[in-house]
Design goal:
The protein contains 6 helices and no strands. By secondary structure, it is mainly alpha-helical. α2 packs antiparallel against α3 and α4 runs antiparallel to α5.
Amino acid sequence: MQTGFKHLHILLPYLLLLLPLLAIVVSLVKEKNETVAGKPSKLVLFTLIFSHVQLLVGLVLLVMNIMSNSNIMKTPELRKKLVEHPAMMILAVVFITIGYSKAKRATNGRDRAKKIAIFYGLGLLISVVAMSYMGYWSKMAFMH
């Protein structure tokens, strides 16, 4: 079961990198001239939901790994994998969630697009940094 979650957690970030970027571009193009209040696009909502699903898969893996490892803080590789990476990814999902909430309350399309661009952009940036920090790019090629 842990292997399945691990493979899922390695494959899903392809979408986690693409969806926020698409949500930012779509909201900037589609909503920048709207003058009325409304909801963010379905893509923005789907990105929010997907980021939470990815976080839950990661947290399941985290719990499985913590239960099977001791001396987490003494081993740099374990600390990076079980403390620092999850903390950065939680922060990224928090920014995406804040961005959606603020965009939902925006009074016009320009404000909505701006809030989505800022907060989803921060979430995307933190995700890229966290994935780079873990050496994720080499793992994607070989599915370690």
